[in-house]
Amino acid sequence: MSALPWMQHLIVVPVLLPLLVGALLIPVAQNRHGFKFAASAVSGVLLWLLSLALLGMADGGHWPDGIGVYLASNWAAPFGIALMVDRLSALMLVLTSTIALAALVFGARRWDRVGVHFHSLFQFLLMGLNGAFLTNDLFNLFVFFEVMLAASYGLVLHGYNLRRIQAGMQYVAVNLVASLLFLIGVSLIYGATGTLNIADLTLRVAALGPQDTYLLRIGASVLALAFLTKGAMWPLGFWLPTTYAAASPPVAAMLVLMTKVGVYALLRVWLAVFGDAAGELEGFGLAALSVGGMATLLFGAVGMLASQDGGRMAGYGAIISSGTLLAVLGHSGSAVLASGLYYLIGSTLAMAAFMLLIELTERIRPPGAALLAITMEAFAIEDKPEDPVGVGIPGTLAFLGLSFVACALVISGMPPLSGFVAKFSLFHALLAMPGRVPPATWLLIALMLLAGLAAIIALMRLGVRTFWASGAVTPPRLQISEVLPVGGLVALCVALTLQAGAVFDYLSRTVDGLARSGSYTERVLGEPPVMRPAGGEVAR
Amino acid sequence: MLLAALVLVPFLGSLLAAVMPADARNRESWLAIAVAAGGLLMAGSLYPDVAAGQVLREELAWLPAQGLYFVLRVDGLAWVFTMLVLAIGLLVVVYARYYMSPADPVPRFFAFLLAFMGSMLGVVLSGNLVQLVVFWELTSLTSFLLIGYWHHRADARRGARMAFTVTATGGLCLLAGVLVLGNIVGSYDLDVVLAAGERVRADELYLPALVLIALGALTKSAQFPFHFWLPHAMAAPTPVSSYLHSATMVKAGVFLLVRLWPALAGTPEWTWIIGGAGVCTLMIGAFIAIFQHDLKGLLAYSTISHLGLITTLIGIGTPLAIVAAIFHILNHATFKASLFMAAGIIDHETGTRDMRVLGGLRHALPVTATLAIVASAAMAGVPLLNGFLSKEMFFAETLLVGGDTNWWMSYAALAMGVFGVAYSLRFISIFFGAPSEALPRAPHEPPRWMRSPVELLVLTCLVVGVLPGLSIEPILHVAAVATLGPAMPEYDLAVWHGFNIPLLMSTLALAGGVLLYGLLRRYLQLKERDTVPLVHRLNGAQIYENTMLRLTRGAGWLLKHLGTLRLQPQLLLLMLALLGVPLLLAGAPPAWSDSPRQGFDPLFTAIWVIGGGCAIAAAWVAKYHRLAALALVGGTGVVTAATFLWLSAPDLALTQLMVETVTTVLLLLGLRWLPPRIKAGAGQPAPGRLAWLRRSRDLLVATAGGLAMAALTYAVLVHPASDTIADFFLQNALTGGGGSNVVNVLLVDFRSFDTLGEITVLAIVALTVYALLRRFRPAPESVAIPAQQRHDVDPASAQTPAEQAGSGYLLVAGIYLRLLLPFMGVVAVYFFMRGHNLPGGGFVAGLIFSVAILVQYMLAGTVWVESHLQLRPHRWLGFGLVLACATGLGAWLFGHPFLTTHTAHVDWPLVGELHLPSAFVFDLGVFVVVVGTTMLMLVALAHQSLRAHRLPGDEAARAAPPVSGRRTL
User: Fold this and answer.
1) d(C-alpha B398, C-alpha B412), whole Å
2) What is the mean pLDDT of residues A394-410?
3) Distances (CA, A) of B190 to A424, B180, B252, B909
4) What is the rounded CA–CA span in Å between residue A132 and residue A51?
5) Do A471 and B135 touch (CB under 8 A)?
6) Is A83 helix (H, G, I), strand (E, B) or coil?
7) Record: contact A540-B584, CB cut-off 8 A
8) Residue B645's CB: how many other CB atoms inside 10 A?
9) First to last CA, chain A
């Protein structure tokens, strides 16, 4: 091969485009909001189209085995950095760009101007996220985690007030320590195996000596701790609700995605390194993951019940969703992966929509009065009997109410939206495993149901207080740029439910691809660098 | 497609209803009537097939991989329920047209009502258990929304929340039960499950499945002890109470039990759980109903009691009992719906539902009164009305299973009959006596169409009661056959069976009821009592509220103990996890073989002792002497640099040294603005035992962490290296990367993609620091000049910082460093140029250049530097990133991947042939970003001093020197 087909370059564009746009926006004067938003939005739309294109290429047979490999700097893996797109990473890219687009549009009216450099930081965040999903190299993963985290530090503090500073301090401190763990973990894995490329790790793991194996175990568990801190596993995720509640809505929507990056990274590394080619190391640490996940699930449910404001509730919702994923993955590995991924997509979309929605609902009325109404309700204190004539609900409130109900249903996993489909398919997958169903599985199912119950009770309380107990409401003024993202994300949740069959088909192809570690290593390590034209003036 | 249309059309109607204008009461009603009537026609057309015993199925693949098909299935039972839902629905929407006030926003009402109709049809027609759960929860949801229709009223909100919490929780139990059942059978398909009854009952998971499904059914059908939500649901508009909370939704629970009868019934557990709950409910409901003052409250408790009767019949579980149960479901729906509607008319006309106020209504409302009295008689089980027939069957069944052992069942049935007659009398008492004076409104007969649904229903009661064989028998037969199949019993629906014990019981119940009512009125002041005798402590609603409150409080308590909001415990946990988890997962280390040792060097050891000492000392003083701690950390950094040098890594040493310098200086600049330490004084208690313990714990954890890391590092260092990718880099740096400095080639060629990411991180951090400090004002207490600079002897202490730099003691040093600036620039260029082959490179050069600027700021002051040197760090950042990126993109022109290095060979005059690798340009981007980053942070910090001095009372900064001789950098 003497020149790379241009379509191959598309793999690296999700990293480069936001980098360039973000960099070009740095020197632009702060008051040119329109221009900044336009540039950012163009990048967002392009990324969305691009991620869809990559999904189509990965799924449409453009590459053998549905795996596209891009050798940055033209050095073959494992020596250079290999980027890889398969169905899983393409899916994550689509999810990222979708939520990013919604968050961008939502922020266009107000949030992007409460501080400086919102759009640059936002683009860098996208670069980090996309890079983390695309890379196939542990150290490069660290780099993109850092890009993502650094940008998220800036964004969490964006438009700072006392609350954001306090929350941001926690977020930054905890994540810096987690990054340190990441680095220690990567170094230990490199020390044990002598490589950083994940595909190369797959090949080397089975042949390691006892000392190297030991180092690998330690390194992998330290690395997992780093991922799990970002994925907010109990007891490492206490920073999450505080941060979510404090961050500005578009940023909070992106944060929802970021907890999923931890889960994704864990999944990616574990499937490759401790998969079926790992010999005695196969499934290393999964039992602990399952226990941790269940504890997280329980913690999230407790937190959900104890919270009063929407932001924290959303935070605990994210913890529940992380806990569910971790517990299920730890419990049965790749057997339930397709359902787990479906759950991940649905809950991420709904949580992001919920994050944007909360801010809109808070405009309805100051919360104090509603709280009083709730208390009176609970103690059956009747004030004067009121007329049995209904109160009209203006269009904006109806929109907010319906979106709220939809989000609540998905987050709590109640029928009929995607949350239920996801939970049911998880249950089904857990129960369909061969052999008698062990008590741990029943425990897990019970926990998931209980967490859903806690979520629906808490969310109903919040919804009743917001929409019903707020008395004679003045409908909040909503901008079209605020309605569109929320409505779009909710509509996606509905579409995900209706098209569950098609989505599951895609996901099962994804899981099949992940299970074939042979073709994966072959594709990544076998990708040839582009040859130099003979006798050219280019010298190495 | 017919079945799908049956379920879908109400939902479509709901959507249509939702978008109509708020005052379109007539259009909404016509739409709802059309939907219900159309549904009736469609369902009616299925009768021939269903009557022939066929099971019609429609399937749609939804999630085939999970065994989840969208299956609609109609057999006799489903068909009868479908007709019930649609027929009552039709009557209710006609009624609601007149019931709802013109001011009520009806789109919401009809939208939810139609959505409920669709969900209920979905429950009834589901051929897949999971799908049934979906529709089941949808009925809970729509019920919640309908109860809360008048959401400005606290009782509506309370009732809605209670109903939803209870039924949705039950729904989750049902889901769990269905999963267990599906696991036993291996399918969620209803036909398969129904055919596998033997296997289900023999399975060890039978009991959990039964309990869970029973929980779902009992909560939905308001059975004891979950009955309390139903009376509170009466806050809903009356059409809703009539439709959802008497005729249809609450029947979903008993419907499910009948539906699953072939699979689950026939065991002692079934009888005890279902029958037990039913008996308790029928007694308690009937008893409490007598003591209600609210018309709808009475009807609600009566509904509970009748549902208990049905549940008891199902619990008895004999085929004949099932027939009676289905029969009573139909009968109850007709008379109770009509009673609710009558109560609504009374409420509508008089403005109150309080039976203590109401009286003598037969004068003002003669027709309504007649209808309500007939319906009440049906409820009481008076002969020639439909209620009598099914109640008779109930008595017969309790007698049959009763015998000697379960005699209490017959007595309970009889008691329930007596109570039923009593509360029916209580209900009709409002029509008799003298007309009440205290009514809020003067009553009139309602509009004709508002009354017509009641008329139709009461007529049905009569027809069924008089001519059961001709009217209801064929329909009942269809439903019963579908459920019972071959077990179909012989039975005879007739008014007269001759003198037998059930007839005796009916007579006793009638007589006893009249007697009881009379006694209660005389001795228990029935009309004035506020509490129910005997069971008034059994307030389910209050227990529910208390439970919810406790749940929230308990969760709060748990949250406080399971989590934390503070940062320090989180970091401690992270450290503990770092220590514990790897140890737990990896276990004990294997035998460790060392590689051959290098010799021991005392000098190297001494350097390390110093470094270690610095680190420990830094930790020791970190809390109270920040400056000292920072200096000590710097010392550790220098030792690290020295170590790199010692171990032949000059490039790393150089970089480490520069990084240490720049970060230490920047941190020192930031330190200036931190608030001073709070002195331990009179106000502060001395650290107690607890603090001592805490500190000891922290020390222990820190020591353990440090030792563990040291041990780990040692283990990695001494264990023989495997074949690493590092060898490849060493071999290929010169031949492939064109440079003999492997570190630099790694950074700008092999792994330049990493470098691109890292410089982006730098830029992001700089932007964040800038964004944070841009508007930041230092705390007032740290604005003052520090004590060290305020010594009386020092003449400089009288000067402002600007004067110190301009004409004071900093002048000489400042001028020297000004002269040094170009030289340092040259040094930076030198290190940059030689980077590819010798220690150096863009990163180091950028740091050197930054130091040059830094010292200018420090000595000459912000004002002076910025008036002579226009720094545009934002442009540096943007330009550097774009340059690095564009260099990488250049490779695309040659058909190579991003960041592939190309070398141009240029013949320069005088200089000769030059190799100009593209990596060089990339490195230039790195250089620019590093300089931009440092400058931006520096500027952000430096401007603090400007803002600080602009505080009132300090005019120094305003007297800044005039801007002249700007140079743009």
Assistant:
1) 9
2) 88
3) 17, 14, 16, 90
4) 14
5) no
6) strand
7) no
8) 18
9) 18
Parse chain B into domains and list their residue ranges.
273-527, 533-561, 732-969
Residues pairing with B85 in the sheet: none
Other Cβ atoms less than 10 A from the Cβ of B508: the count is 15
Which B-chain residues 742-801 have CB contacts (< 8 A) with chain A? 749-754, 756-758, 760-761, 763-765, 767-768, 770-772, 774
Chain B CB contacts of A73 below 8 Å: 749-753, 897-901
Backbone angles phi, psi at B928, to 5 degrees: -65, -40
- Burial (0-12, 13-18, 19+ Cβ within 10 Å), B459: middle
The token pair that represents B257 in the structure block: 């039990």
Structure tokens belonging to residue B12: 């479509």
Burial class (CB in 10 A: 0-12, 13-18, 19+), B491: middle
Beta strands in B67-158 (DSSP E): 68-74
For residues B890 and B904, the answer to whether their CB atoms sit within 8 Å is no
Distant-in-sequence, close-in-space partners of B927: CB < 8 Å, separation ≥ 6: B828, B832, B842, B843, B845, B846, B849, B880
Gap between the Cα atoms of B161 and A521, Å rounded: 55
Report CB contact under 8 Å: A530, B900.
Answer: yes
Strands B903-908 and B912-917, bridge-based pairing? antiparallel
B513 to each of A198, B295, B359, B382, B421, how far by Cα in Å? Answer: 82, 19, 21, 12, 5
| Angstrom distance (rounded) from CA A319 to CA A455 | 11
Token digits of residue B596: 């051959």
If you search the block for the tokens 């009691």, which residue do you land on?
A: B305
Number of helices (H) and strands (E), helices first, in chain A? 20, 2
Question: pLDDT over 90 for what percent of chain B?
Answer: 41
Q: Tell me the C-alpha distance between B783 and B524, whole Å.
A: 81
Residue B701 pLDDT class (50, 70, 90 cuts) = very high
Q: Which runs of E-coded beta strand occur in B414-555?
A: none
Strand partners, A69: A84
The two structure tokens encoding residue A232:
């907010």
The residue that leads in pLDDT, B858 or A39, is A39
Per-residue pLDDT for A412 more than 60?
yes
Nearest chain B residue to A372 by CA distance is B154
Give me the residues paired with residue A349 across strands.
none
Q: Look at residue A398 and tell me whether its pLDDT is greater than 70.
A: yes
What is the H or E stretch that residue B843 is in?
A: helix B842-860
Q: Does A190 score more than 50 pLDDT?
A: yes
Residues from chain A that touch B894, judged by Cβ atoms under 8 A, are: 3, 538
Please tell me the distance from the alpha carbon of residue A539 to that of residue B15, in angstroms, as a whole number.
69
> For A210, which residue in chain B has the nearest alpha carbon?
B590
Calpha distance A192→A195 (Å, rounded)? 8
| Dist. CA B395–CA B240, nearest whole Å | 31
ipTM: 0.91
CA distances from A422 to A443, B243, B536 (A): 18, 33, 44
Distance CA A261, CA B398 (A): 62
How far is A211 from chain B, CA to nearest CA, in Å?
6
Which residue in chain B is spatially nearest to A472 when comparing CA positions?
Answer: B152
Short-list A371, A266, A454, A442, CA closest to B177: A442
The answer to whether B150 faces chain A, any CB pair under 8 Å, is: yes
Mean pLDDT of A79-104: 94
How close is the nearest chain B Cα to the Cα of A433, in Å? 11
Residue of B588, B402, B144, B97 lying closest to A217 (CA atoms): B588
Residues of B in Cβ contact (< 8 Å) with A339: 66
Tell me which residue in B565, B760, B879 faces A124 most closely, judged by beta carbons: B760
The pLDDT assigned to A249 comes to 92
* Domain boundaries along the sequence of chain A: 1-174+243-270, 289-377+395-518
Cis peptide before A78 (omega within 30 of 0): yes
Angle at B683 between CA B677 and CA B688, to 5 degrees: 85
